[in-house]
Automatic annotation (TrEMBL):
Lineage summary: Bacteria, Bacillati, Actinomycetota, Actinomycetes, Pseudonocardiales
Native source organism of the sequence: Saccharothrix australiensis
Name by which UniProt lists this protein: Putative amidohydrolase
GO molecular function annotations of the record: N-carbamoylputrescine amidase activity
Boundaries of every CN hydrolase domain copy: 1-237
Highest rank taxon of the organism: Bacteria
InterPro entries per record: Aliph_Amidase/BUP (IPR050345), C-N_Hydrolase (IPR003010), C-N_Hydrolase_sf (IPR036526)
Length: 238
């Protein structure tokens, strides 16, 4: 199976972001990708002042649904999602016929996010072509038990949608050390690890880029630098 880690700079324009998502799904599918992973809050941008939540039947999903159906692809799209329990930072899964297959809600919120969102309380495992994908959002990957639980549930692939800034008081060693550490949790458990994150300016942050795919054990399969783009990897079993 081929998976795409998509690196982009969403802005506070859901309609424009949706059109760009559709274009990027087509670009990734042309390179063979079956699964297209986007960054955290990719449909709205990482804009928290104010948060403008979406629902699963919002009109902005339409271009993404059409692109998935046209290219027989899955899209993992970040959005602030309104749920009965409150607004969550979600990865919404759109399937290859354009249907919504469910969503994963970020479980480990930072201090600012915790004032605006409610945490998720369960994992989401997605079955695609005999592979099992476990989903994470940004700081979920900083908690080793998260990857452990996903692996115990049967995941072969750990997909992280994120925003990693260039400068962070919590990670003074810099973004590369953070990425290596957090993706290494999953890779060290024998999973493929996929990171889709921002590049450029997003909300209050200058972001680090570096999206890509890591093999089980931690070797880099494909990486992007600071540029927007699509990194496609072919997942194989040992």
């Amino acid at each position: 199976m081929q998976v795409a880690a998509i690196q982009t700079t969403p802005v506070a324009d859901p309609a424009g972001n949706a059109a760009e998502h559709a274009r990027l799904i087509g670009e990734a599918a042309a390179k063979g990708a079956r699964v297209c992973a986007f960054p955290e809050l990719s449909l709205t941008g990482y804009e928290l002042h104010p948060v403008r939540p979406l629902t699963e039947d919002d009109e902005h999903w339409a271009p993404i649904r059409s692109a998935c159906a046209a290219h027989d692809a899955y899209a993992l799209v970040g959005a602030p999602l309104s749920t009965p329990d409150g607004v969550v930072i979600a990865t919404v899964v759109i399937g290859p016929t354009g249907e919504t297959l469910g969503h994963y809600a970020k479980r480990h919120l930072d201090d600012v996010e915790a004032r605006l969102f409610v945490p998720g309380d369960h994992h989401l495992l997605l079955e695609v072509d005999d592979w099992t994908l476990g989903l994470a959002v940004c700081s979920d990957a900083a908690v080793p038990s998260h990857a452990v639980e996903v692996r115990a549930g049967g995941a072969d692939v750990y997909v992280v949608s994120a925003l990693y800034p260039k400068v962070s008081a919590r990670y003074p060693r810099g973004p590369e050390a953070r990425i290596a550490e957090q993706l290494g949790h999953a890779a060290g458990l024998g999973m493929w690890a996929v990171l889709a994150q921002y590049t450029g300016r997003a909300g209050d942050y200058d972001t680090a880029g570096g999206s890509g795919v890591w093999r089980p054990g931690g070797a880099v399969d494909v990486r992007l630098g600071d540029e927007p783009g699509v990194a496609v990897a072919t997942l194989t079993r040992p």
